[in-house]
Amino acid sequence: xxxxxxxxxxxxxxxxxxxxxxxxxxxxxxxxxxxxxxxxxxxxxxxxxxxxxxxxxxxxxxxxxxxxxxxxxxxxxxxxxxxxxxxxxxxxxxxxxxxxxxxxxxxxxxxxxxxxxxxxxxxxxxxxxxxxxxxx
Length: 136
Hints:
Layout lengths: L8 E6 L3 H12 L2 E6 L9 E6 L5 E7 L14 E5 L6 H9 L3 E3 L4 H5 L1 E5 L5 E5 L7
Helix pairs in contact: 1-2
């Protein structure tokens, strides 16, 4: 298969706490667990959690290596944007906050006007955009 718009995308990130990450992304946002691997404590062994929507062409992989943890280093511009195409439900934002998220103001006024930004437990930002995705 050639690399094109039909190619599946995996976004991989380190996490300090897989349990907290799962609470936010699965219980909070509503993603499904696609795959899970519990690693050991020896160097090179890692635990991971892959989450996504079953019909999506992407998934998020969260990795933790107990023997040599990688500290997440997100910036304010490390965003995962989900286009809601309408009002962002306040109950969804509340659920994300109840599951470890923190609603924040974006340094980019565009996202404050067109969405809601929530930090996950590792500080990475999820933007729920009120806009619809358009290729034009």
